[in-house]
């Protein structure tokens, strides 16, 4: 217990302590709980002095003070800055005898009170101090020399860059200097340029020097870019060694904010055996140092020893939980291990529920790979109703990205097929996607989501194997399959028909979108069908109906396959650069090398990221005047896809025949009747001269015999139309003329 008496000489002078009077035995007078002291004495709990019943009172002017920081008589118990006091906490850490004493650093002296600050002198002192601190490092002179050569190396017009790389390597190849400088923000860029411009033999030698430090480099803010350079420019043998050097540290890197991204890149470029060995480290400590080539999946680890299953699954769960707590599950390696674990835990409901609960919030980040999408589907199927609602809530803000993703759309279709509450399905999913229907229809994967909503399980739209996989989720629902699908279609057909009526030209803008439009038109009923059919018929009957010929368009998910012979590619690019450089220097052209621009832009982007990271660690600098931003170069506009006549395009011809095929079963005002009503004589004249248009008219009268007379009247209304049809020798014109009894 802390003593209430002040320490030091002041206590000696005050012989009769007023605090002792409070300790006298007996009852306090007048019913007071705490007896107040005299006029000059200390009041233990009297804040305002003298008042009865005041429980918390500050000491009087002449009394002892428990924590006296400013009084002239007492000592300071916690004195951090006094000249003579006992410094128990704080004080000068550089004083003699302090065991925490570090290197003394001289700081620039602040001006005296009333004097003006000499900023030039202040900046000079700061600069000198920074230089002194840098020069204290043992690699300062070597780094300085390497940076000077690097300034020449990074210039675009510099020739014989491989020679400069050799010079830098001679400077840095002293002891373990490379391992020290690779983590610094400035010399890390030197190593990157060396890996880029070095000859194949020297690049392999530099990589061999760096391989023992790969694990530390993968976790460094700056050295990680050197690992990226080794992956980009290294030979296949170097890349294989790079992956091998990570063995024993896979789980640690998977849970590291910087290393997880590099680990994912290496896993995707690794060989099948290397992928297996990387997954094995999640199975337990047994496989971290010793790899087993007979263990291909998680189930192989306990195949011969079933008593080990619980402990192995516990290790996998602990490793997955570690990665999940860091929210670093967007990795193909983690997705593969997660899928194996969920399949192995099929019988253990308790462990499965714990894992599903932990990963429910991270499902949107698991849908970037095929294995991750399958794992997400299993998580949703095996979840409790509470976890299902949590998963749906978490994917709401990412619905468009998921629906247009190569693997994410499979998860979304599986979810749509397994939910029993169709009203909640429409509200939670379709209503959020309705505003982006055009974006969905422009994506090949988004179109599959729309097709499943209107034509689920249709073998003309989906592969039987895909349907079988998706329908596995029906076992986890209670409602009948046909009833569920009918309820969903009834709820979404009206808003989809409204979207088609508002912009019918878009829904027939190319053959791929047209195929989905045809599926929609063949499944919706009643007023929704008539509204959509009327709008589409008006577009088809327009004389200037044009659609995009390049229907497929660019595929954003496509990835270029890396070439195996990296050295040949680099050598060929070097020759092209030299030719261009020689041509530019002889002709005096001011344009820069186009072959190197894309590579240099990537370097500048990475250097900018490193510079921003370095500025975070650097000392604050004086602001400079802003330079005027450079005007961006005008980019050439990409040529748009050519437009062709919609009635002549092969894909759209199939779409129209598909729509007309189901018109014979419909009652009321079908698409074929509205199309024939909207055809003007000018459009009909143009159609009769086109072979595919004649086949469309032939299909129209074959599927709807009631329209045969109307078609005859339309053609016979003008003699020129009958003459054109009779004169045409195309197969479609001949068949149509025979059907309409023209020319006989």
UniProtKB/TrEMBL annotation:
One of its GO terms (cellular component) is nucleolus. GO terms for molecular function: mRNA binding. Residues 76-89 have a biased composition (Basic and acidic residues). One of its GO terms (biological process) is regulation of translation. Residues 587-604 have a biased composition (Acidic residues). Residues 145-496 form the PUM-HD domain. It comes from the Eukaryota. Pumilio repeats lie at residues 209-244. Residues 623-633 have a biased composition (Basic residues). Keywords: Repeat, RNA-binding. Gene3D superfamilies: Leucine-rich Repeat Variant. Residues 1-118, 577-646 are annotated as: Disordered. It holds the Pfam family PUF_NOP9. This is Protein penguin. It comes from Drosophila mauritiana. The gene is LOC117147401.
């Amino acid at each position: 217990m802390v003593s209430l008496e002040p320490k030091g000489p002041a206590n000696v002078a005050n012989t009769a302590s007023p605090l002792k009077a409070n300790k006298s035995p007996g009852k306090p007078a007048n019913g007071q709980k705490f007896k107040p002291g005299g006029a000059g004495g200390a009041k233990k709990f009297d804040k305002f002095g003298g008042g009865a019943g005041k429980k918390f009172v500050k000491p009087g002017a002449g009394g002892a003070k428990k924590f006296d920081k400013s009084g002239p008589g007492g000592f300071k118990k916690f004195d951090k800055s006094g000249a003579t006091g006992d410094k128990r906490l704080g004080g000068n850490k550089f004083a003699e005898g302090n065991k925490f004493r570090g290197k003394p650093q001289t700081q620039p002296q602040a001006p005296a009170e009333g004097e003006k600050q000499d900023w030039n002198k202040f900046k000079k002192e700061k600069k000198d101090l920074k230089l002194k601190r840098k020069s204290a490092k043992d690699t300062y002179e070597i780094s300085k020399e390497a940076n000077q050569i690097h300034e020449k190396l990074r210039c675009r017009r510099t020739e014989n860059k491989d020679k400069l790389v050799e010079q830098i390597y001679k400077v840095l190849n002293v002891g373990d200097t490379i391992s020290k400088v690779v983590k610094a923000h400035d010399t890390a860029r030197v190593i990157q340029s060396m890996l880029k411009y070095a000859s194949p033999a020297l690049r392999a030698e530099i990589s061999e020097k760096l391989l023992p430090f790969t694990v530390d480099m993968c976790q460094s803010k700056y050295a990680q870019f050197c690992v990226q350079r080794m992956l980009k420019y290294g030979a296949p043998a170097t890349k294989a060694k790079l992956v091998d050097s990570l063995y024993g540290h896979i789980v640690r890197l998977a849970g590291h904010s910087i290393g997880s991204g590099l680990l994912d890149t290496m896993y995707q470029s690794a060989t099948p055996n290397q992928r297996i060995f990387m997954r094995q480290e999640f199975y337990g400590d047994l496989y971290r140092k010793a790899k087993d080539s007979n263990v291909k999946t998680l189930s192989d680890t306990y195949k011969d020893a079933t008593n080990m299953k619980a402990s192995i699954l516990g290790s996998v769960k602990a490793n997955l939980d570690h990665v999940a707590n860091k929210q670093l599950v967007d990795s193909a390696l983690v997705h593969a291990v997660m899928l194996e674990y969920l399949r192995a835990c099929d019988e253990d409901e308790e462990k499965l529920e714990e894992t599903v609960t932990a990963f429910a919030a991270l499902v949107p980040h698991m849908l970037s790979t095929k294995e991750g999408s399958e794992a997400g589907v299993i998580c949703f199927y095996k979840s409790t109703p509470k976890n299902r609602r949590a998963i749906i809530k978490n994917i709401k803000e990412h619905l468009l990205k998921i629906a247009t993703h190569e693997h994410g759309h499979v998860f979304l279709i599986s979810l749509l097929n397994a939910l029993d509450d169709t009203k909640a399905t429409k509200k939670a999913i379709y209503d959020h996607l309705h505003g982006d229907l055009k974006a969905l229809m422009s994506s090949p994967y988004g179109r599959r989501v729309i097709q499943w909503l209107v034509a689920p399980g249709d073998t003309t739209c989906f592969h039987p194997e895909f349907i079988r996989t998706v329908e596995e989720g029906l076992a986890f629902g209670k409602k009948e399959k046909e009833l569920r699908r009918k309820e969903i279609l009834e709820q979404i057909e009206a808003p989809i028909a409204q979207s088609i009526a508002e912009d019918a030209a878009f829904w027939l803008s190319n053959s791929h979108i047209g195929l989905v439009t045809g599926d929609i038109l063949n499944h919706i009923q009643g007023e929704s069908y008539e509204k959509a059919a009327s709008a589409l018929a008006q577009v088809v009957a327009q004389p200037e109906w044009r659609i995009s010929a390049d229907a497929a368009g660019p595929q954003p998910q496509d990835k270029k396959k890396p070439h195996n012979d990296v050295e040949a590619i680099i050598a060929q690019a070097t020759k092209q650069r030299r030719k261009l450089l020689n041509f530019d220097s002889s002709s005096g052209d001011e344009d820069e090398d186009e072959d190197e621009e894309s590579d240099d832009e990537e370097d500048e982007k990475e250097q900018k990221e490193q510079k921003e990271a370095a500025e975070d660690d650097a000392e604050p600098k004086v602001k400079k005047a802003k330079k005027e931003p450079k005007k961006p170069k005008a980019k050439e506009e990409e040529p748009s896809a050519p437009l062709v006549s919609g009635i002549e395009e092969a894909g759209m011809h199939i779409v129209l025949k598909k729509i007309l095929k189901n018109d014979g079963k419909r009652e009321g005002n079908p698409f074929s009747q509205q199309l024939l009503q909207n055809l003007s004589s000018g459009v009909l004249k143009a159609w009769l001269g086109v072979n595919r248009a004649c086949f469309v008219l032939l299909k129209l009268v074959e599927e709807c015999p009631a329209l045969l007379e109307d078609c005859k009247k339309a053609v016979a209304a003008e003699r020129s139309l009958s003459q054109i049809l009779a004169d045409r020798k195309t197969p479609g014109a001949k068949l149509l003329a025979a059907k309409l009894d023209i020319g006989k």
